[in-house]
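Apologies for my clumsy wording, but can you show me some protein sequence, whichever is easiest, together with the matching structure tokens, please?
=====
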Amino acid sequence: MLGRSVPLGILGCLTVGLASLSGADGATAAPFTLEGPPKVAMVLFGPKNDGGWGQAFEEARVRTEKALGIQIPVVDNIKENASAIRPAVELFIKRGYNVIIGTAFGYSDTFKELSQKYPKVAFLNGSGTTNGPNLESFYGRTYETHYLCGMAAGGVSKEGKLGFVAANPFGVVKWTVNAYELGAKQVSPKATTTVIFTGAWNDPVKERAAAEALAGEGVDVIGQHVDTPTPQIVAQEKGIYSTGHHRDMREFAPKATLCSSVWFWDRYLIPTIKKIGAGTWEPAPYGAFLSIKDGGPDIACCGPAVPKAIVEKIQAERQAIIDGKKVYAGPLSDRDGKERVPAGGVLSDADLWKMDWFVPGVISQK
């Protein structure tokens, strides 16, 4: 998820607001000072038991509570409009909560407004695009984890014929599809990935139709960048394999799921809340763009169908990424032969967020 419903007219904001989420550029402000100890609350876009995006945040909330010895109340099903977000957040603030965690792209503008209205409150927003002296948006480099899951898919597929159920053809989704194919080619050079876009982040009916269509075309491993476990369930019903997104999907399809790209938001939230409490938190001017090393996404790998030799290669590549390897390093061309990254170069964060092309081997809808 990068917000559940991102209008095409807003996509230009992604290039500006998220282009440099690493926070490596620009001047940093003075550390934010919180009045009193941190009192943390969380606002969820959807249900906390959705099996995907929302539940990943809910599980991180529980782990964060345990690690910090605090209580973090949560309210869920707060939709992406100011009339829903503002009263939920302001109720927490009126009750003395001074660290508010949001969980949606569509919260971005309202969180910005609220952060300006309440300058003594710290705001954090997962998949947001706005930042400020007391506001930091954060997201993860999921192309790293899908690259690794692609290796699992390529290592198990008999013919190298992979499929992918994706939500919307945005940069944040295309980078997962492309990375999946790049990872698969590490172990199966002739692998292809056929992607079907459902047009929705959370629509089990469309996800089922897409997964069944892919299975009908002879695909034997299905990846996903949608919010429900439906592609995993379909794969298990069809006797083929799958890789998951958001959480460890072996919970829903233990026989089919080979690998999952999993969110560990507590690895970001725990140290960030500690910094806020200590008066050392300096929100990155472009937000936090988290790699595996930084503690955002990681993998749950691997299912028993993945050969030991492939598991070892995946773990070696994971360590290489932690040590600095870049998934989108040159030379790299798109499937039409256009050079996208020259030899010795690395795709910039700005180009990642506005990715509108596919690597060789990806087969997409026309």
